[in-house]
Design goal:
The chain is α+β, with helices and mostly antiparallel strands. It is 39% helix and 26% strand. The protein is built from 13 helices and 14 strands. The strands form 3 sheets. Strands 2, 3, 4, 5, 6 and 9 form a 6-stranded antiparallel beta sheet that branches. Strand 12 and strand 13 form a beta hairpin.
Length: 395
């Protein structure tokens, strides 16, 4: 099963535009880039409308490709309706490149000249074809790739959401390996720097946030003639739901220790140890009290430290499902408890694109009970929610 291990997004106006007509959406399992076009603020309206429709979930269909394509076509219909209803928005449109992470592969739906690339094992591969006049000329052998880079009509696209009542998006399903990085971008990146330059940035940055900044910086350094938007996400392939016996044993161990971690429950154990120590002479006791804590106190502190460290390290092998501050279903590493002084025994490991408000009451209960799970169990639960396959009786 696939999961998004890391993602980063960045959008920049560029150096020659006053407004940013690009828009993006980035919440697993869906990632989208849209590049608007049109007079006044019509481009912003078109791209924002596309993102709004896509962020509401997939449409109807038997396969993920059909469902994602149906949602893109719905966005096209709404943008077209807005354009014909307002003369100032006549002819407005937007590109869209969307990636949906399924259980074992990735579905791409694409209209326009925004792009999707895959970075795998040091090699950059473009997965989408531009719907542009220049790209058509390249495919027909009328232009070379080098000639296309500086062609005066390179910005003319042949397909977009909005200008026509009906649009036919390209769709495909591609395989994914552990460690794959996918890049969605507007043409403000791809027309300013070459694929080799994109690859060089990805190869030189370990963190995707740094890679996103590096790509935008490179496009601006090359002139920044258009808005620049990049969305990057790294794929992690999970173990298929096989929880280890060690994880299950630790769940029971930590659950029994948590009440002790909240109070100073190590004191009784330390007292037993102290009674077994040989009695010291009166002078020795006075000297100990004056210059250093008693052996019993040191043992009590040591036992408490061992207990707390044991709880902490054991909790790192445990996961639970909850919601973040914005209400999105998330996977947390650790246990849902807080120690004094604001010390949490958990950290956020993964945020999904599913909001608690979108779930039926039976599924909300599953999320809010904070049941302790193995990592694979927690990941599987969230992925089933994202894919809409969780039944009301599922654990």
């Amino acid at each position: 099963m696939l999961r998004v291990a890391e993602h980063a997004e960045l959008s920049d106006t560029g150096r020659q535009r006053r407004a940013n007509e690009d828009a993006f959406f980035a919440r697993a399992p869906l990632f989208v880039v849209a590049d608007g076009m049109g007079g006044a603020q019509a481009g912003e309206v078109a791209s924002a409308t596309a993102i709004e429709i896509l962020s509401q979930g997939l449409g109807d269909g038997e396969s993920t490709e059909q469902r994602l394509s149906a949602t893109v076509q719905e966005a096209n219909a709404q943008i077209y309706a807005l354009s014909v209803a307002d003369d100032e928005r006549a002819g407005m449109g937007t590109t869209v490149t969307a990636a949906y992470i399924g259980e074992n592969d990735i579905t791409l739906v694409h209209v326009g000249d925004s792009r999707c690339y895959r970075w795998r094992d040091g090699t950059l591969e473009r997965l989408t074809d531009d719907h542009s006049l220049v790209e058509e000329m390249v495919r027909q052998g009328q232009l070379t790739e080098e000639q296309a880079l500086d062609h005066p009509q390179r910005s003319i696209i042949t397909r977009a959401l909005g200008p026509e009542a009906v649009v036919e998006p390209d769709s495909q399903t591609v395989n994914a390996r552990d460690g794959d990085v996918l890049l969605l971008c507007s043409d403000g990146l791809s027309t300013m720097i070459s694929d080799d330059q994109i690859a060089a940035v990805l190869a030189g940055e370990e963190k995707l946030t740094d890679a996103a900044r590096g790509l935008v910086r490179a496009a601006n350094d090359a002139g920044g003639r258009d808005n620049i938007t990049v969305v990057l996400f790294r794929i992690e392939r999970l173990d298929g739901g096989q929880g280890s016996e060690i994880e299950q044993t630790q769940v029971g161990l930590v659950t029994s220790q948590l009440p002790q971690a909240k109070a100073s429950a190590a004191a009784p154990a330390a007292a037993n140890v102290e009674r077994r120590l040989p009695r010291a002479g009166r002078g020795e006791v006075r000297k100990s009290r004056r210059w250093k804590p008693g052996i019993g106190t040191l043992l009590a502190v040591f036992a408490a430290a061992l207990l707390l460290s044991g709880v902490y390290f054991a909790s790192q092998a445990i996961y639970f499902v909850g919601v973040d501050r914005e209400g999105f279903v998330s996977v947390y590493q650790g246990v849902p408890y807080e120690l004094p002084l604001g010390i949490n025994l958990y950290r956020e490991d993964y945020v999904s694109g599913t909001n608690l408000s979108q779930l039926p009451a039976s599924e909300r209960t599953i999320i809010t009970e904070h049941r302790l799970r193995s990592r694979s169990d927690a990941d599987d639960l969230v992925r089933q929610l994202e894919l809409g396959r969780l039944g009301s009786g599922s654990p």
